[in-house]
Amino acid sequence: MGGKIDGYFDCTSPYSYFAFVYLRKHRELLRQYGVEFEIHPVFLGGINVGSGNKPPWTLPAKATLGTYELKRAIKYFQTEQLSPAPFFPILSVVPQRAMIAVKDRHSNEKFEQVFLETWRYSFVTHVNIEKPEGLADLLSKFLDEAEVKEILRLVKTQEYKDKLTAKTNEALKQGAFGAPWFKVTNSKGEVEPFFGSDRFHFMWEFLGVEHEDLKIVDKREGKAKL
């Protein structure tokens, strides 16, 4: 029993957000099985280019289905109402570098809180965090003025350009073609990839996490109880 989930997320991907919310909701239950998870910011644009994939909104059929899928996911994961902003999609390079800098310099809980807020800004309040002023406004909700300035400085450095590139390439080497992407290691040291926010039942099987799979309720059982 035990294992680790490494998740590779980008703030332009609402399904990364749904998976993030779900994992945090179940963190303590997962710890009962010795399973931890770690979130890694990556550049989804780089993953798409590197894998030869195309964003779903660029394909008319996927874009049409996506309007239904987004509503369904919001209901299932019980999140705030998300909707694409007029400026969607943003070039997420700088915000993702900023998330790596926050992760390097602060506690994991602080990092996760800040990273979660990127989706609220992009899909709820519709503030463009690709712009320096938008990103600064987001960071200032969690960090003091001096730290915000330092994060905004760091995102321009070669160090953090390289760090984001390295994490993105790390996911690509695993076979990633989108986000959320997961590298999951079980208690035997076996590693398997998982993609998307709707594969957790497969993940739990691989990790040995006891769970109840989706099942249709037998109405006769309810009548018998009466």
From TrEMBL:
<protein>
    <recommendedName>
        <fullName>Glutathione S-transferase kappa</fullName>
        <ecNumber>2.5.1.18</ecNumber>
    </recommendedName>
</protein>
<keyword id="KW-0808">Transferase</keyword>
<dbReference type="GO" id="GO:0004364">
    <property type="term" value="F:glutathione transferase activity"/>
</dbReference>
<dbReference type="GO" id="GO:0006749">
    <property type="term" value="P:glutathione metabolic process"/>
</dbReference>
<dbReference type="InterPro" id="IPR051924">
    <property type="entry name" value="GST_Kappa/NadH"/>
</dbReference>
<dbReference type="GO" id="GO:0005777">
    <property type="term" value="C:peroxisome"/>
</dbReference>
<dbReference type="InterPro" id="IPR036249">
    <property type="entry name" value="Thioredoxin-like_sf"/>
</dbReference>
<dbReference type="GO" id="GO:0005739">
    <property type="term" value="C:mitochondrion"/>
</dbReference>
<dbReference type="InterPro" id="IPR014440">
    <property type="entry name" value="HCCAis_GSTk"/>
</dbReference>
<dbReference type="GO" id="GO:0004602">
    <property type="term" value="F:glutathione peroxidase activity"/>
</dbReference>
<dbReference type="InterPro" id="IPR001853">
    <property type="entry name" value="DSBA-like_thioredoxin_dom"/>
</dbReference>
<comment type="similarity">
    <text>Belongs to the GST superfamily. Kappa family.</text>
</comment>
<feature type="active site" description="Nucleophile">
    <location>
        <position position="13"/>
    </location>
</feature>
<feature type="domain" description="DSBA-like thioredoxin">
    <location>
        <begin position="5"/>
        <end position="205"/>
    </location>
</feature>
<dbReference type="Pfam" id="PF01323">
    <property type="entry name" value="DSBA"/>
</dbReference>
